[in-house]
Amino acid sequence: MDAQVRISVQEADFDLTAEYAALRHGEQIGAIVSFCGLVRGWDGGVAMRLEHYPGMTERALLQIAHQAQARWPLTGITIIHRVGELHPGAQIVLVLTASAHRRAAYQANEFIMDYLKTEAPFWKQEVDATGGHWVDARETDQRARQRWEAEYDG
Amino acid sequence: MDAQVRISVQEADFDLTAEYAALRHGEQIGAIVSFCGLVRGWDGGVAMRLEHYPGMTERALLQIAHQAQARWPLTGITIIHRVGELHPGAQIVLVLTASAHRRAAYQANEFIMDYLKTEAPFWKQEVDATGGHWVDARETDQRARQRWEAEYDG
Amino acid sequence: MKTLELRYFARLRDALGCQAERVDVPADIDTPRQLIAWLRQRGGAWDSELSGQRPFRVAINQDMSQLDDPIPPGAEVAIFPPVTGG
Amino acid sequence: MKTLELRYFARLRDALGCQAERVDVPADIDTPRQLIAWLRQRGGAWDSELSGQRPFRVAINQDMSQLDDPIPPGAEVAIFPPVTGG
């Protein structure tokens, strides 16, 4: 099935409403799942800085979208990721998946986030009063991605 | 953890933006997942009529929210379900889950929809030119719910 | 005798031609299973719809219940088809 | 000799003090594993950061790659820490 795919890497904030409205059309969509990631605060935290690899980032996100599309019957996929300096509470990532069926929309959305966390070239730096500190990759994110390799989608 | 819980059964349409904004506060939320169910069209279909059991419906949805809350660390849960006559393309159900962690937000959201589909007293009638036809319950919805009974949340 | 508030919904209400009724049932009717058997004695749609050939669900005082759960006196007992919301 | 465009990101770029460079490598350097060994000969941070004690990833022409994938002539090869977006 051909899904409408939109990928954006941007400094600007995004608008869930507008992105949801853009995917909601026609009468064959039964489910739209959205994931919004927000910057969590931490003790002494001032901001989060997000670096990325221009060119490769869009390419990696598009590949992840295509993998999801190949695996589930989707009518639309939107992936927006912000870069630059973001303060606690800010929106950082948005993933929308639309499908005739709720399970496809849920599963594809979680799949995209799990792959994004391990395959898309973004790096976070936590900024506090002493400066910037690179965040280490988390083992739990690796495991979250790996379960899709073993799992037959149910 | 105490989650902010909002339940509504209503004829009026709902607004994803407003509901999302109501859950997004503080600096400890890392993930907000939303599910929007839409009425799908079908050949000759005119509308979907949704009947419910006033009183029990709210009670059942609240119980489902509390079960989700007991199972995952959530900061907020919103469940809105429309009743009455709805046309293809219309929004019918909205579930929002907010958490510090994305997996909790995803899993709780899917859990709530699976339980809602099998435990909340709503009944659908498809209306076409010949009148209204009650929709039969689907075996796949039963199975979707049952997997939560077996599954240890990962 | 004990008094129960019965409610019917959706396809089952249409088939039975009844939305709600107050009934006095024999004192020894303690469970939905016994109540259903008592209702089937009315014959016609009551007998055929509640025979179990088509699935139905029961709620006691607005909680989903099993066929052998106790029915308290004065309870609101609802009988309806499997739910189809969402 | 073949020419490669190297790029470094995030913590690794800071540690190496280098963001991007064009290098001429011996013609027999065909894979990221061989390229890494060649870069480590520079010593200092190059040797320690690329020793494998801290994990790193490699992309060839903007595709995530394995250590033994072929590097085409003129390729853009990026070396960076495991990603942490989302």
From TrEMBL, chains A, B:
Pathway membership, UniProt: Cofactor biosynthesis; molybdopterin biosynthesis
First-tier enzyme category under EC: transferase
KW Transferase (keyword) present: yes
Record-listed E.C. numbers: 2.8.1.12
Gene Ontology BP term (one): Mo-molybdopterin cofactor biosynthetic process
Name used for this protein in its record: Molybdopterin synthase catalytic subunit
SUPFAM superfamilies: Molybdopterin synthase subunit MoaE
Originating organism: Amantichitinum ursilacus
Pfam families given in the database record: MoaE (PF02391)
Keywords: Molybdenum cofactor biosynthesis, Transferase
GO MF annotation list: molybdopterin synthase activity
Description of how the protein assembles with itself and partners: Heterotetramer of 2 MoaD subunits and 2 MoaE subunits. Also stable as homodimer. The enzyme changes between these two forms during catalysis.
Automatic annotation (TrEMBL), chains C, D:
Top-level taxon of origin: Bacteria
Record's protein name: Molybdopterin synthase sulfur carrier subunit
CDD domains: Ubl_MoaD
SUPFAM superfamilies from the UniProt entry: MoaD/ThiS
Organism: Amantichitinum ursilacus
Lineage per the UniProt record: Bacteria, Pseudomonadati, Pseudomonadota, Betaproteobacteria, Neisseriales
